[in-house]
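cache lookup: miss for this entity combination. No prior model stored, computing from scratch. Input as submitted by user K.M.:
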Amino acid sequence: MNGIHDMGGMHGMGPIEVEENEPVFHHPWEGRVFALSLGMRAGRGNLDNSRHGIELLPPADYLRLSYYEKWLARLEWRLFHLALATADEIRNGKAAPDSPRFTPGLTADMVPVMLGRGGPARRDVAVAPRFVVNERVRARNIHPTGHTRLPRYARGKVGTIERDHGVFVFPDTNARFEGEKPQHVYSVRFAARELWGDQASPHDAVYIDMWDDYLEHAGT
Amino acid sequence: MTPVRHILTEMESARAQGHDHDHEHQAVPSDPALRVKALESLLVEKGLVDPAALDALIDTYEHKVGPRNGARVVARAWVDPAYKQRLLTNASAAIAELGYSGVQGEQMLVLENGPKVHNLVVCTLCSCYPWPVLGLPPVWYKSAPYRSRAVIDPRGVLREFGLELEDDVEVRVWDSTAELRYLVLPERPAPSESMTEEELAALVTRNSMIGVAKVTLPGVSA
């Protein structure tokens, strides 16, 4: 979706504010919402759908809320949309008497193993690549209304396939629970001037990871 | 797709309109700490999370996983050319040799900085970051100013971090749009031939592994 989250190239966001000796979490609740989100994710939903939960925040809220306030809003959204809790339950912090009970997907003893193994998005399936290294490609000019990882600033721009990363889950369909649609992901090099015009340095480039479905042949 | 309204938005608009007193059974604490507390007790009651697992997750990222991991990777690459070669060709496996792997670092790539190439990592769409080697990202990395400008004005961003690059240096910005995670291998500062691997690791900063800084010797500025 063409949301506020897709902010590469925007102006007016102000200076970068760096905090010295920044703590990992600024308040205990930030750590709790982080852990609740990871603990909940075990076996339920998927990362792409989860990212989309933050993109769906109204733009003004997205800019106003702190990072972990966004995670909190996303956690509430996920519970509601995965039908794991009702709005009333979320408001009250109390399970309805007749609501189903579950078994936690993640227990303390499983944490080191789960974190160490991770959740690879790479898929060991034979899918033919549509592009080859050094080929000129154009990022498609598409504007999906759902989740996508094709940033707006690259759409319609021409770059070069720098590297084939292998086969990965396709976020656009996976976020909607419409299948993983595994396909090749490439590192695509875009000259900074192709993206931003003559104001950019002739030496600079932006590398963007792109799925087969985001690209078309650009010819020579 | 059906437009989705966030529960939060509904809650907040109800509060903003002063309707709370009309709906006391739906009253929502505005303080995130209270909302999180309510959510945790709900999820524990439903059996969706184990409180001890939450403690273990927080402890891991507060105390065990952080940029010191990445610093050890960098220092090893500086002193061991064979390791550096493995790191540049199969980063995930080379990083796992030192015991670091997993969530948000499943597929790693290492980008080598040199006199004429400078790499900088960003996630314009959200906050993707290599957790196993750098821990959780700092606020500035996740902020709108950094995410919006790193791709269009990387030299301006670097200047804000106190790093001025020569015009003929090639700046490569890596936008983490997929599940590849990037670690910058900064240039080894000179002269540092007499330093041990441990001493070198102590010089390596988080920012140098994101690409917004160089590694410098104590008392020497960039």
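stored under new cache key. DSSP finds twelve helices and four strands in chain B.
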